[in-house]
Each structure stands twice: as C-alpha cells, then as structure tokens.
TrEMBL record, chain A:
This is Pimeloyl-ACP methyl ester carboxylesterase. It comes from the Bacteria. Residues 34-143 form the AB hydrolase-1 domain. Pfam families: Abhydrolase_1. It comes from Bradyrhizobium macuxiense.
UniProtKB/TrEMBL annotation, chain B:
It comes from the Bacteria. This is Uncharacterized protein.
Length: 282, 122
C-alpha cells in the first residue's frame, strides 16, 4: 500500500446529550496526557489538524478533537429540522463534560479557541478540578455584536459565503495561503444557521464578565494565548481578563489572528509548546 | 486613487467571475470626498467622484481620511486590516441596503483591498 496516511484516527461516538441521542465525530492522535481541543464557532475539529500531526505534541499527548453537534461530521439530533439552533453555556459545558466522561479522560488539558476559549473560562470557574490545565485561545469575557447576526441565516444571503467573508479578516497577515483558505473553507461548509447559533453563546448567553475574576488558578492553571490581529477578541480584551485573574498567564502572539492553530500552525506551535512543557513539568 | 479600482477589479478574472450576480451602485465616502462606484455583473463600469447633487446608491460606506489611510497600508496595523475590523471599531459606517453588501462581502472586501499597493484582500 502506498497511501500516505496521517496519524489521525476519526470515529463516531454515540452519546446522549441533553437527554437526546447524538452521533458525535471524534478524532485523536498521540499518546499521553489527554489534550482536549475545542473548535471555534461555525467550524469543526479540523482546525486542530496540525496539532495532531505534530510529533512534538503527540509524543506525549493524546490529542482529541470532537466536532460539536451540528458541526463538521457530527449531525444535529433528530428533530433538528423544526428547531432553531442556539448554543448556551449550560449545554456547552455539559457537552464537554459528557465527552470527557465517555472517553474516560482523567484530568485532561483543555484547549479552546474563540467560543472554545470562552467556555474554557466557564470551565475554569465552575469545574477547575476536572482539568490539569486550561488554555484559552482568543478568550475574552464578552464580545459586543458588531454586525447584524441575522445576515448569517437568511435565504437571500449564502450562509457559507457570508460566514467565511465575515471572519476572513480575522486571519492574521502572516498566515500561509493554504492554511488561511483551509480555515475559511470550514466556515463555508457550516450548516445553515449554525454559526449564528454558536454566536448566541459568544455574544449573548456566554457573557462571563461579572464572574471572571472569581477564577482561582490555584485550583487549575490558566493560560491565555491571543493573536495580535484578532479584532473579535482583541489582545486588550484578553489582557483585561488576565489582569483580573490572579495567577493567569497571557501571551499576545505577534502576527497571528483569531484562528492560531488553524491559520498558522507553525507560528502557533512556538507559543503553545512552551505552555505544554510548563504544564507537563508541574 | 479610488478611480484605479476599475482597472484593478476588472483585471482580476476571478473576482469578476465571483461578482457575476452583482449589479449595483454604492457610495464610498472618505473624509469629505465621495465616489459613486457602479458595478455591472461584477465589472466596475464607472467610478464617479463627487460632490453630488442627488446621488442614488444601494448602500454607503463612510470613513475618515486617517482610517482609510491606515486601511490602505501594505501591512495595515491590527484593527485596520479589514472592513469588518473598521466596522467593529465604529470608524466605518455601513448604511443603506446592506443585504447587497453582506451577500457579496468577499467581493467588496477583495475589491476595496485592490486599493492597497499590492491589492491584498481587505
């Protein structure tokens, strides 16, 4: 056989979430400390493809990424066709814990970007004992809506085209073209209304400003990494979160944008590897 | 400078192809100067500099000289690198029939990005 396979294995997991049967697509690579990866709004686990292909990470981490229901290869639950998808903090938290329980993950490191970074802050606040460490990428406590979200889901605007066009400027200027357009392709593939439904959590339900200072990093270390060119969660917003949480560590990544692990994996690794090393040495 | 939009957009076959279903006239206002930009099936057919007595347009984009100058840099600073970044900072105002703008957002970002020296996407 001459096929060149990547070391990533993907499987479908049957999982009950919020009392309903789901079919959740999970990918993993590597062995060692579990590293659970949470993708951004309107995208899927492919954003972590490079992490799973990086032997510097996989030689001592079991890297796991699942597509949230409605995303990527995880279908929505039965009955979806009559529902409006809206992600809430409660559902999102329960989903992550259910995936961890199903996979028997013992104190994983969790890394989440954007909405994943926001829920990482919720996890740090509410479930610190479940995690070895928490890494928030592009994690802010709140983002005010800056465009009419209804444009994301209406029949006279192509949902995939508009989602990718809205986020295209969030990719940093140094991103290699192949990774930039791979990142945007995921957005173009998103199902109708899914990006909008995720943003319900990001811009409305998931506001954690009032409680973020209560995060106790003695219970679980918190690392925040944010790209310089992200205007959705700006470096200033990340630094504000870091400033209000004693013991948290923040890094602003020069030249990177809102999707560091997907848009520019080579540059991102330079920031992530020292953090993983620090967590491993604890 | 805005006038060169016509040649640069029309010279990009991919952009014109993606704009095939786009026919409109929009207003671009930078500081005290405005232009009406007329597009027919993805090709720019006219860029007309104001002042205007009774301009007709589907939507308008309005910003300041300073913000536009930063936007047009070859490597714009964070917050100035994209139309949506300007909108987020409330320094670019989009108004009018924005369905046309949003349904063709990639087109408008790439077209206006042509005003950068090397025409990088906006």
């Amino acid at each position: 056989m001459s096929a060149k396979f990547e070391p990533i294995i993907g499987r479908y997991m049957q999982l009950e979430l919020s009392g309903r049967a789901h079919r959740v697509y999970v990918e993993e690579a590597g062995e060692g400390t579990p590293l659970l990866c949470l993708h951004t709004a309107g995208a899927d686990g492919r954003q972590y493809r490079s992490l799973m292909n990086d032997p510097r990470v996989t030689r001592n981490h079991r890297v796991i990424a699942f597509d949230m229901p409605w995303h990527g290869k995880s279908s929505p639950p039965q009955g979806w066709h009559d529902e409006e998808y809206q992600l809430t903090s409660t559902q999102y938290t329960a989903m992550i814990l259910a995936v961890m329980d199903a996979l028997d993950l013992d104190k994983p490191i969790v890394i989440g970007c954007s909405i994943g970074g926001r829920i990482a802050l919720h996890l740090a606040l509410e479930h610190p004992e479940r995690f070895r460490a928490i890494i928030g990428l592009q994690a802010g406590a709140h983002v005010d809506p800056y465009y009419d979200l209804n444009f994301l889901h209406r029949p006279d605007v192509h949902g995939g085209e508009v989602a990718a066009a809205i986020v295209s400027g969030l990719v940093g200027p140094d991103a290699p073209d192949s990774e930039r357009w791979e990142t945007l392709w995921h957005y173009m593939q998103s199902g109708p209304g899914v990006f909008k439904g995720d943003l319900y959590f990001y811009k409305i339900d998931g506001d954690i400003r009032a409680r973020v200072a209560e995060i106790d990093t003695r219970r679980c270390p918190l690392f925040l990494l944010s790209g310089e060119y992200d205007y959705s969660c700006t470096p200033a917003e990340t630094l504000a979160v870091a400033g209000s949480i004693a013991g948290s560590e923040a890094t602003i990544m020069k030249g990177l944008g809102h999707f560091p692990m997907s848009e520019n994996p080579g540059e991102f690794a330079k920031h992530l590897l020292p953090v993983l090393e620090k967590i491993g040495g604890r | 400078m805005i006038e060169m939009l016509k040649e640069r957009v029309n010279g990009d076959a991919g952009l014109v192809r993606r704009g095939h279903y786009l026919t409109t006239t929009f207003l671009l206002e930078i500081g005290k100067t405005a232009w009406l930009i007329a597009i027919h099936e993805g090709r720019i057919v006219a860029v007309t500099k104001g002042p205007f007595v009774m301009p007709s347009w589907s939507f308008a984009l309005r910003t300041s000289d300073e913000e536009w100058d930063r936007f047009c840099k070859l490597r714009p600073p964070p917050g100035s690198n994209d139309l949506m970044a300007l909108i987020k900072r409330r320094v670019l105002k989009a108004e009018g029939e924005l369905q046309i703008f949003m349904a063709n957002l990639r087109y408008f970002k790439e077209a206006l990005g042509k005003l950068r020296r090397e025409g990088a996407a906006a």
